[in-house]
Structures are given as C-alpha cells and as structure tokens.
Amino acid sequence: MHESWKEFLQSEFEKPYFKELSKFLHDEYERKTIYPPKGLVFSAFTTDLNDVKVVILGQDPYHTPGAAEGLAFSVPNSQPIPPSLINIYKEIDDDIGHHANPAGSLRNWQRQGVLLLNTVLTVEAHKAGSHRGKGWEIFTTATIEYLNKVRPHLVFILWGRDARNKKSLIDSSRHLILESPHPSPLSAYAGFFGNHHFSRCNEFLTKNGMEPIEW
Description:
By secondary structure, the chain is of the alpha/beta class. It has seven helices and six strands; from the N terminus they run ααββααββαβαβα. The longest helix has 16 residues, at about 15-30. The radius of gyration is 16 Å and the shape is globular.
C-alpha cells in the first residue's frame, strides 16, 4: 500500500468492524480458496492518494482462478478479457474512438490516477457475492467519504446498484458523479452503452487543469 494512505488505513484497521472482518478473512483464507491472493487484496491502495483523479467503483472481485488482482474490472494480461471489461472497451471505442489497453490489465489506468476500487475486496472461489455483509462495505464507504473530503475535483464513476448506492456520500458541488447500469452483459444495454462516461470524465479533468486519462 502507498504511504499516502497510511493515516486513513491505520485508523480503519483499528476499528471494531475491521478487526471482526480481519478475523473472518483469516479463517476464510485458512479453510477455503479466496480471491484475490492475500498480497493483492489492497492493490487499489498502491495508487498514490495525491495522484487520484478518478474513482471507478466496482462490485466484488472476479471469483474464477487467476482473474482477481485487487483492481476493479482488471485482470492480468495472461487472462481472457471478462465480458464486463469487453463491454467497457466497446463503450470507450464508441465514445472516444479507441481504447489504449491491448489486454485485460487496467494498471495503465491506475498509473494515471484512476482508483479501481471494488465495494467488497474479497470473494470465495466460484461464489459471487460471498463476502458481502462482512464489513467491506463499511470500509469502502469510509474510503469514499475520505476521498470526497481530502481530494478536489474528483470524477466518481458509479456502475451498477452497489456503486450507485454510494452516491449520497459524494459532494456533487465539488466532484463529478457519473452513474449508469453495470457493464455486465445482463445490464449493459439498459443504459451503460452510450453513457459517454470516458469523454465526460476527460472533459471535466481538462476543465479543472488536469491531464485527461488515456483510456
């Protein structure tokens, strides 16, 4: 984790809810197959807090072997591109002409200041949503509240119900909120396609004196 998050993370780690969550996770990793691997759970927090310009909020990690790497929607380049990410790339192509990533890793976005944060940071293998309601939602709510307070002119991209439920935590007079249905094949045609979030994000960043994201 990046040093810039130290104060926030230490504060959360000391709270009763996180101690309960830690105990739960210790037992889960001991007895079951859990994704991502322990060392990648906090990958999103390797992004320098002071560089964060955009927050993309996902749901929970991919629950198939080798896919989850601790960054929302991202998979290692050795893995097939998941359907939701295929749809994200389609929308980028339609919105701004082309997407820059040749495969499934979104670390290039992370290096440009995009925080790729899931609402829930762990999952049991082949059981989507299995770690919901264990404390991660409290942690990610605190993360959004902290970002809302300490960073100026952020773009919050909220896809799907879980992400959109965080909208009330964000001061829309300071930040840009972009929301739509999830890019999953089950909902992409219900309003994700055609949302123009990538061009709208870059327009806001440019307007506020920041470099646009090379999507």
